Amino acid sequence: MTSATDATPSIASPRSPRRPAARRSNFELYSWLFMRLSGLLLVVLVLGHLTIMLFLDDGVQRINFAFVAGRWASPFWQFWDLTMLWLAGLHGANGLRTVIDDYARKDGTRFWLKMLLAASMVLIIGLGTFVLFTFDPNIGS
Ligand code: HEM
């Protein structure tokens, strides 16, 4: 049994020292929130996309240049595909950023993997956006 006179044991602080105020930011909080919100929107966008492309009418059999041209004649589907492209790109890249932070052991490896990730994200999102805005349905004529 312990008596009231026992000294309270002292242990070292388990937390890492806090960073100076000037370097604190809410970036990781917003990035965490973005993953949840973009995930929710992606459920609707991706499941809608798959339903239209794979299940309705003849499904994948009917997809050709004319089908894509027909869909992209509508600003609604252009906006749908643009949003899906940007959200999937940013969500996927931000998720991989977390994976790199978790698993890359050396500073150099982490840095170069993130550079590669950023470059591929800019390329894929940039190229996709470019195609969406410059698509010419009369390319053959
Ligand atoms: C269909 C709708 C989707 C939902 C609901 C969803 C949801 C989520 C959520 C909530 C997280 C955070 C997990 C965590 O922090 O523990 C996450 C992480 C991630 N997501 Fe998605 N996501 C979806 C689509 C996608 C797509 C299309 C991609 C790829 C382009 C993707 C790639 C990733 C990656 C790489 C991670 C990081 C995994 C990790 O931290 O271990 N997700 N997703």
Automatic annotation (TrEMBL):
Tell me the CDD domains matching this sequence: SQR_TypeA_SdhD_like
Instruction: Spell out the subcellular localization from the entry.
Output: Membrane
For this chain, one GO molecular function annotation is: metal ion binding
Q: Which Gene3D superfamilies match?
A: Fumarate reductase/succinate dehydrogenase, transmembrane subunit
Residue ranges the record marks as coiled coil: none
Main localization (coarse): membrane
Record-annotated membrane-spanning stretches = 33-56, 76-99, 111-135
Oxidoreductase listed as a keyword: no
- List the InterPro entries: SQR/QFR_C/D, SuccDH_FuR_B_TM-su
Cellular component annotations (GO), alphabetically ordered: membrane
Kindly name one Pfam family recorded for this protein.
Answer: Sdh_cyt
| Keywords for the protein's UniProt record, in alphabetical order | Heme, Iron, Membrane, Metal-binding, Transmembrane, Transmembrane helix
Official protein name in the record: Succinate dehydrogenase, hydrophobic anchor subunit
Q: Which organism is it from?
A: Actinoalloteichus hymeniacidonis
